[in-house]
Amino acid sequence: MMCQHYDLKLEGADTAFSVDASNTTFGQGCLSEAGEIAKSLGISRIALFTDDALAKTEHVAKVITSLKAANVDIALYDNVRVEPTDESFIAASKFASDSNVDGFISVGGGSVIDTAKAANLYSTYPAEFLDYVNAPIGKGVPVPGALKPHIACPTTSGTGSECTGIAVFDLLEMKAKTGIASKMIRPTRALIDPDTTLTLPPNVVAASCFDVLSHALESYTARPYTQRPAAPSPALRPSSQGSNPWSDLGCAEALRLAGIYLERAVSDANDIEARHQLMWASTLAGIAFGNAGCHAPHGMSYSVSGLVKDFQPDGYPKGEPMVPHGMSVIVNSPSVFRITGVDQPDRHIDGARFLGADVSDVGPTEAGEVLSDRIIELMKATDMPNGLTGVGYSADDIPDLVNGSINQRRLLDNAPMSIDEEVLTNMYAGAVSYW
Ligand SMILES: [Fe+2]
């Protein structure tokens, strides 16, 4: 029997949920299986996507060795942009079209995996760039059919992009992040080697783990699938289908692991157990949010990163200002959960408990606060930015931040409460600084 959360069915709402996930291999050294997997997928010439820093690492070398041993030809694209744009997606797509490949492999963080998804899509089903981009910014045209096989090999314990049908980028002329969302662009295989995280700088580990943490919390507190209007046909049921019993499993365990290992993984690069466990947490949260969807903290993050002023974090490429994805999300999360706690107090208390907070004396009216406090405690312990102020904004920027994210309806409408301009303004106002 389901818990009450899913018994509250609305008229015309969905009555079922679907589970989609990349076929996943997880474990130390598994990058050396890339060649065998490519072969088994019928790939004879593969586009290998990575960025110029990763191209020099042992991780990419291991993948290349494995592909060559399996007699798979390689077309190397090591020009992926960290925090991709429409221009960088188009350049990558042109490379894929010109390279005459029958499969893709991506080795890198979310930027690399998302770029390979886009290159696979536009080279397989050429179209005007905005056709497949989420409405209302793009046309939201459905992807016509299956893409070429794509093996995704994440090197950060963060985005979960290897498990999702989402590709995020900056649309330069609007100075806003948006994305392409379709089950069709989900990678065919995920090859997750936790050793790839051992060389990451502390700030990168922290930012990507807060992304994981927010994926799990947002999926767990998302509007339940039983309260989302049913799609016109089962095939059109969205990936952001709302919280559901399958995703709940991954969220709970990902949060439990983050609560135990996040501080350890950031403070000690030699803590192999902590870094491996966070990679597993990232995988679980990726599978969870790939089937539930995120909500307001991610929706708000798009303008936080898209409108960046002069913030340049440690551990990331220098030269251009940027707010890394995990930071652009987590600066919003405590404020959002403080507000949404009113709607689903039990789930917010659960979230705090999973993360290790003592909730024995917490009542429903304090649900948002206790979760918010636990997130802030973890942010302070790992030197994360102190809210919007910490990434270069002030209260004066709130109208622009609201403008830049109010159209992220796929995410905002997945929240447990309805979010209009006034609510969104309050969410940003609560995120200006936390300590
Ligand atoms: Fe994310």
Structural class: alpha/beta
Count of DSSP H/I helices? 17
Number of strands: 8
Q: Ranges with pLDDT <50 over ≥5 residues?
A: none
Domain module tally: 2
Tell the overall outline: globular
The portion of residues assigned to helices is 40-55%
The hetero molecules present are: fe (ii) ion
For the terminal residues, how far apart are their CA atoms? 43 Å
* Succession of helices and strands: HEHEHEHEHEEEEHHHHHHHHHHHH
Sheet with most strands: 6 strands, parallel
What is the structure about, briefly put?
This protein is an alpha/beta fold and 435 residues long.
Please characterize this protein's 3D structure.
The chain has 435 residues and is of the alpha/beta class. 44% of the residues lie in helices and 9% in strands. The chain folds into two domains: 4-17 and 200-429, Dehydroquinate synthase-like - alpha domain (Dehydroquinate synthase-like, alpha domain, Up-down Bundle), CATH 1.20.1090; 29-192, Rossmann fold (3-Layer(aba) Sandwich), CATH 3.40.50. It has helices spanning 4-7, 34-40, 58-69, 86-99, 110-124, 202-221, 245-267, 272-292, 296-306, 325-330, 333-340, 345-354, 367-381, 387-390, 398-405, 409-412, 421-429, and strands spanning 23-26, 45-49, 73-77, 103-108, 150-154, 166-171, 176-181, 189-192. Helix 6 runs antiparallel to helix 7, helix 6 (202-221) packs parallel to helix 8 (272-292) and helix 15 packs across helix 17. The N and C termini lie far apart (43 Å). Bound molecules: fe (ii) ion. The site of fe (ii) ion has 6 residues, from helix 6 and helix 10.
